[in-house]
Each structure stands twice: as structure tokens, then as C-alpha cells.
Amino acid sequence: MDALQEEFRGMTPQQLAAPVNTVEEKWKLLPAFLKVKGLVKQHIDSFNYFINVEIKKIMKANEKITSDADPMWYLKYLNIYVGMPDVEESFNVTHDQCLHMSVG
């Protein structure tokens, strides 16, 4: 964090909050962003946001399915979630497929 403080020393809060307009200026922000947040953390946060927020928005946009055969019949999705992975070994026999690590 000291490197970031040194880099932006002397700038007013208004300068720091000003919009970044050019692509060249945006590319200068990438190293600072990676120092603060890290690439892996950004990917995990992005994935979690997709699973917790975006996938629900996609479902909501397509929540009602109607029937061509009977216009009075429809199916409406109320919720969606992503569960833990599992593998079906045989008929109705499953086991969790979690990541297992051993340290040696």
C-alpha cells in the first residue's frame, strides 16, 4: 500500500475521483488495481457475483414458459441456485465432488 500512497501523493480527492477518459489512462490503473485487489481475487469476486446476482437476473428475464398446446398453462421459475458438484455413480447413488488437497 505504501507504493500506492507514494504514487498518488499530492493529489486532491477531486483529482482521484475524476473520470478516467482515455484508454492510456485506464491501462495505467491496472497495476494499481492488481496491487490492491489481486488478479485471483478479482476472478473469484466476479464468479461469485455471477452466481449470486447475474444468474438470477438471467432467470428473471426468462421466468415464464408458456405452452403452445394450452395457452392457459405456464411454468414460472421462482428461484435458481448453484449447488455443490456431485457425481452419480449409479442409479440414485451420488457422492460429492469437492476439491481435496493433501499437503506433504
Automatic annotation (TrEMBL):
Domain RNA polymerase beta subunit protrusion: 38-90
Highest taxon above the source species: Eukaryota
Listed EC numbers: 2.7.7.6
GO biological process: DNA-templated transcription
This protein's UniProt keywords: DNA-directed RNA polymerase, Nucleotidyltransferase, Transcription, Transferase
MF terms in GO: DNA binding; DNA-directed RNA polymerase activity; ribonucleoside binding
InterPro entries: DNA-dir_RNA_pol_su2 (IPR015712), RNA_pol_bsu_protrusion (IPR007644)
A cellular component term, taken from the record's GO annotations: DNA-directed RNA polymerase complex
Family under the similarity heading: Belongs to the RNA polymerase beta chain family.
Name of the protein described by the UniProt record: DNA-directed RNA polymerase
